[in-house]
Amino acid sequence: MADSLPSLSLLESRVLGTLVEKQRTVPDTYPLSVNALLSGCNQKTSRNPVIETSEGEILQAIDVLKELGLVREISGSRVSRFEHQLEKGLGVPSQASALLTVLMLLLLGASRAAAWSSSTSAARRVISAGAAA
């Protein structure tokens, strides 16, 4: 594993987790366009907390993840598409990346929501669990 693991924001974790999840659950549409990634990050099921983010915020998170070597852009179609490099970037097997994905999408979300709310404008649109029901 890498000597120093990157510290990711809630949104960066959500973007990376969504890419890994969608690679396994809908491989026919993977790698994902920004629009598909936006939908996956904003989906209301299997996410904690449920968020509402924008395309611009997704692109900023992608830029950070690209710098960390965790995401790369794929060209060759009409739209830009993105794929994760989680296993390669962290030096973990695919089974470990599956567990990390669950943590990124569900379990770590609640603990990071407070920190995210003070550091990004998107957090003003975090949907509380009660309001989403």
Write the layout of secondary structure elements.
Elements: H1 10-25, E1 32-33, H2 34-42, H3 55-67, E2 71-74, E3 81-84, H4 86-90, H5 94-119, H6 129-132
Antiparallel strand pairs: 1-3, 2-3
Proportion of β residues?
Answer: 5-15%
Q: Span between N and C termini?
A: 39 Å
Order of helices and strands, N to C? HEHHEEHHH
The tally of beta strands, per DSSP, is: 3
Question: What does this molecule look like?
Answer:
The chain is mainly α. The chain has helices at 10-25, 34-42, 55-67, 86-90, 94-119, 129-132; strands at 32-33, 71-74, 81-84. The protein has a three-stranded antiparallel β-sheet. A hairpin with a 6-residue loop joins β2 (71-74) and β3 (81-84). The termini are far apart. The model is unreliable at 116-133 (pLDDT under 50).
Question: TL;DR of this structure?
Answer:
This protein is mainly alpha-helical and 133 residues long.
Keywords:
8% strand; three-stranded antiparallel β-sheet; 133 residues; mainly alpha; single chain
